[in-house]
Amino acid sequence: MLINGEWTEARSGLSFEVLNPATGESIGSVADGGAEDALLAITAAHDAFKTWSKTTAYERSAVLYRAWEIMTSRADELAHLMTVEQGKPLKASKAEVKYASDFLLWFAEEAKRVVGEWLPSQRPDQRFLSVKVPVGVVAAITPWNYPISMLTRKIGPALAAGCTVVLKPAEATPLCAKATFDVLTDAGLPDGVINMVTTSNPAPVGDIFTSDPRVAKLTFTGSTAVGRVLAAKAASNLQRVSVELGGHAPFIVFPDADPVHAAKGAAALKFLNAGQACISPNRLYVPSSLADLFQETLCSRVERLQTGNGLHDGVGVGPLINEVAVAKVETQVEDARNKGAGIPVGGMRLVNGEHSNGHFYAPTVLTDVKPEMSIYREETFGPVAPVITYEDPEQVIEMANDTNYGLAAYVYTKEIGVAMRAFEGLRFGIIGINDVNPTSASVPFGGMGDSGIGREGGHEGISEYLETKTGGFAI
Ligand code: NAD
């Protein structure tokens, strides 16, 4: 844990093991912190805020820019660590490190774009000034699936705004968090500006984060169930809240689209990070006129995917994070099978040979998926592509919107009018039009409905860490 510039053990002296999900081997251990450690971390961040919030935007920008340079220079070692700790194939880990560093660069730039306003008054002897100030101490809780970029997406704008931070990373990926903190401290952050409490038991730390009056803001990325509980606790303490939660993305192929192109896009997107992404497509809507060609292409792509240890050449799909994740996928697939879904590819755990000690599930295609199947409504977080055929393109937007989630959606069409109507009609925060990667540090990321509150990245990302102060000057 990092508290006030010191790497320390937990006050309790306890630690916990970190396991490689591909091999089951221990790759290290970290301090197993608790409430007492969280309080010390908040004290450090609260003290450091007094001076960090007074630094100039140029100073904060320079530190973030140095952090970007250092992260870029360590990209290979960070990516290797990510694959060993989280499981995604090395190429995907490298892409994530690049994405993570993009937030440092973007917010190094955004730090200098925080401006106020000179506003009109009805009185000739009065002047109004409105400025932005940092909210204060930020408590951040992050997930394991993107174990470096989810940190920089929060810490980058928080630091740029002049806030200090206490982070609790996911228990599965504390080593990536430590490596990210090494980058930030090596960039020259003063002691106490960023603090990290690792723990195998998140609830007591979450309780402290959401009840300590010195914490001004909670930023959380993770499941909707946990985000809802934490947001309610934070709200009762009048903390500001951003929660980036789960998703259930529709992927709509319109009748005018090229089904082969769309199926290639679906295969590339769905199996990224073994499907463990909040913006992963969960419902592939294909018109019955294109279903055969779409499914044929999808299946042939999925059959060719090699599943294994992400460090090995040719592996396109890594392990799931743990046994609970595999069991959840298995339950959803069995439910779909029992209710009549076809399973032309996959549909089972991988347990032999190089898969025997890891948490592997075969890349799977489900056909004839229906609303009564649990996979139609529940987030899967696994390598399963559920195909739903539809007849009426007039109704497909309504079908796609029939979810409490509202994070990402995807549309395939060649017609600009169809694309525009879909973009306007879909109730989701991020929409890819013939595009499987509609994300970047430079654009807002976040969802509607049960997918959360707030946006990260883009111009909006930093405003989550700022509040407005108005001055009326009688002259
Ligand atoms: P999770 O909610 O179980 O855990 C997320 C974080 O919350 C972890 O750090 C965990 O330790 C912590 N946590 C769990 N219970 C807690 C408690 N009672 N008090 C305080 N902290 C607690 O989710 P996960 O399984 O790690 O992550 C997967 C989920 O995250 C998926 O639902 C996914 O869609 C979502 N996600 C969303 C985004 C987004 O930007 N919208 C990005 C990535 C992941």
Q: How are the elements arranged and paired?
A:
Layout: E1 2-3, E2 6-7, E3 15-19, E4 26-31, H1 35-52, H2 57-73, H3 75-86, H4 90-110, E5 117-119, E6 126-134, E7 137-141, H5 149-161, E8 164-168, H6 174-186, E9 194-196, H7 202-211, E10 215-221, H8 224-236, E11 240-244, E12 249-253, H9 259-270, E13 281-287, H10 291-303, H11 323-338, E14 342-345, E15 349-350, E16 360-361, E17 364-367, E18 384-390, H12 396-401, E19 405-406, E20 408-412, H13 416-425, E21 430-433, E22 448-449, E23 452-453, H14 460-463, E24 466-474
Parallel strand pairs: 7-8, 7-10, 8-9, 10-11, 12-13, 12-20, 13-18, 17-18, 20-21
Antiparallel strand pairs: 1-2, 3-4, 5-6, 6-24, 11-23, 14-17, 15-16, 19-22
Helix pairs in contact: 1-7, 2-4, 2-5, 2-6, 3-4, 3-6, 4-5, 7-8, 9-10
The structure holds nicotinamide-adenine-dinucleotide.
Nicotinamide-adenine-dinucleotide binds next to helix 7 and helix 8.
In short:
By secondary structure, the chain is of the alpha/beta class. The protein is 37% helix and 23% strand.
Describe this structure in words.
- By secondary structure, this protein is of the alpha/beta class.
- The chain has 14 helices and 24 strands.
- It has 2 domains: 2-245 and 451-474, Aldehyde Dehydrogenase, Chain A, domain 1, CATH 3.40.605.10; 249-441, Aldehyde Dehydrogenase, Chain A, domain 2, CATH 3.40.309.
- The protein has helices at residues 35-52, 57-73, 75-86, 90-110, 149-161, 174-186, 202-211, 224-236, 259-270, 291-303, 323-338, 396-401, 416-425, 460-463, and strands at residues 2-3, 6-7, 15-19, 26-31, 117-119, 126-134, 137-141, 164-168, 194-196, 215-221, 240-244, 249-253, 281-287, 342-345, 349-350, 360-361, 364-367, 384-390, 405-406, 408-412, 430-433, 448-449, 452-453, 466-474.
- A 7-stranded mixed sheet has the order 14-17-18-13-12-20-21, sandwiched between helices.
- A hairpin with a 6-residue loop joins β5 and β6 (126-134).
- The mean pLDDT is 98.
- Residues 141-146, 168, 170-171, 202-203, 206, 221-223, 226, 230, 244-247, 278, 379, 407, 447, 451-452 line the site of nicotinamide-adenine-dinucleotide.
- Nicotinamide-adenine-dinucleotide is lined by residues 141-146, 168, 170-171, 202-203, 206, 221-223, 226, 230, 244-247, 278, 379, 407, 447, 451-452.
